Amino acid sequence: MTADAQATLSLEQDAYLRSRSDWMGAYLVLHAWGVMALAMAVFIAWPNPLSFIVALVIIGGRQLGLAILMHDAAHRALFKNTWLNDTLGAFLCGWPVGASLTLYRPYHLSHHRHTQQKEDPDLMLSAPFPITRQSFWRKMRRDILGVTAYQRRMEIFRMEMGQDPSRWQRLKNLIASEKYFFLSNLTIFTITAAAGVWWAYFALWLLPLLTWYQVISRIRNIAEHAVVGDNNDRLRNTRTTLTNWGMRMVLAPYWVNYHLEHHLLVFTPCWKLPAAHRLLISQGFGPRMELAQGYLQVLRKAVSRPHDDVDHGAPGHARKRAQLI
User: Fold this and answer.
1) Which spans are transmembrane here (predicted)?
2) Which residues pair with 242 in a beta bridge?
């Protein structure tokens, strides 16, 4: 947090924002899985194109929610108990969506230390913006068609297999790295098969993960750090996007839209970020903060480049963020 903002916190406010709850952590994890199970059940009970699209959007949103809860666990803010935080954050939040808490934590903490600086491992995700509308819609098409998910996963597989000349050793490296992703997804498939709807794993779990999850992950990445006011000002190099409950449900679950508050008060659990926002506003920081009134406002700024010279992607090490958030 900036030094002057840190100084405004009373001991009571600091203690409140830092306090974590095992009960709340458990509720959030159960909520994410419960919402997805309900969306699946509704479509299975009333199968039609509209209920399928609704299920895909809701489930993809909660899959992002799992990644966000793993992000909280990376900051040891999801559960008060360290074992619960690291174990449930990995096995119930990260691995089902292909994210590794162990790999993500050091990567993400480096992002916090060097936000929008040349050492920031996420800088490649925000640096190309603004882009053209044509480039943006090409990215959206790749996301919704599953091309982005495939390309990123293949990049991760190549990284995990390494350069060992032995094909068997490369395969062993891949299995060792991906075993929990495979096991968690096998568990989901087994549960759907036991319920007599084996196809639900592919249509209502894997498809949202390959499509809508990719779309909203990209939009969230853009909103957090692209086309910000000042890369060197901690109140301006990260953005909070204020939006309504409907957009939060499908695009920004678990208060992830309060991203500036998260960077300033990194120890704060996600469910206390709205309170952190109110605290900062009440203390007069509002005019200095990078705030947007909705995701459309952010996208208009991010997609304002007039000429389509090159289609910026996320090559190389940035693609490993597919297993991150």
Assistant:
1) 26-46, 52-70, 180-213
2) 293
Helices (H), 162-293: 167-194, 199-201, 207-210, 212-225, 245-250, 259-264, 273-282
pLDDT of residue 175: 74
User: Could you please report the per-residue DSSP string of 132-189?
Assistant: -HHHHHHHHHHHHTTHHHHHHHHHHHHHHHTT-S-HHHHHHHHHHHHHHHHHHHHHHH
Residues 6 or more apart in contact with residue 46 via CB below 8 angstroms: none
Please give the structure tokens belonging to residue 206. Answer: 């894997």
Q: What's residue 324's pLDDT?
A: 43
Structure tokens at 270: 């996600």
CA distances from 207 to 143, 186, 202 (A): 11, 15, 6
Q: From residue 118, how far is each of 107, 232, 315, 316 by CA, in Å?
A: 14, 11, 17, 16
Instruction: Please report, as a single letter, which amino acid is at residue 174.
Output: L
Q: Which residue has the tokens 């204020």?
A: 242
Instruction: Say how many C-beta atoms besides its own lie within 10 A of residue 288's C-beta.
Output: 16
Q: Tokens at residue 317, please? A: 């090490």
Neighbours of 246 (CB within 10 A): 8
Do residues 255 and 273 touch, judged by C-beta distance below 8 A? Answer: yes
Residue type (1 letter), 202? F
Closest to 79 (Cα-Cα) out of 33, 36, 13, 19: 19
Q: pLDDT at position 262, please?
A: 97
**Under 8 Å between Cβ of 322 and 153:** yes
pLDDT at 153: 77
- Separation of alpha carbons 209 and 215, rounded Å: 10
Written as six digits, the tokens of 299 are 């996208």
- Residue range(s) defining the domain that contains residue 192: 3-323
How many domains does the structure of the chain reveal? Answer: 1
pTM, to two decimals: 0.90
Ranges of the chain with pLDDT below 70: 1-7, 156-157, 159-165, 167, 169-171, 173-174, 308-325
Q: First and final CA of the chain: distance in angstroms?
A: 21
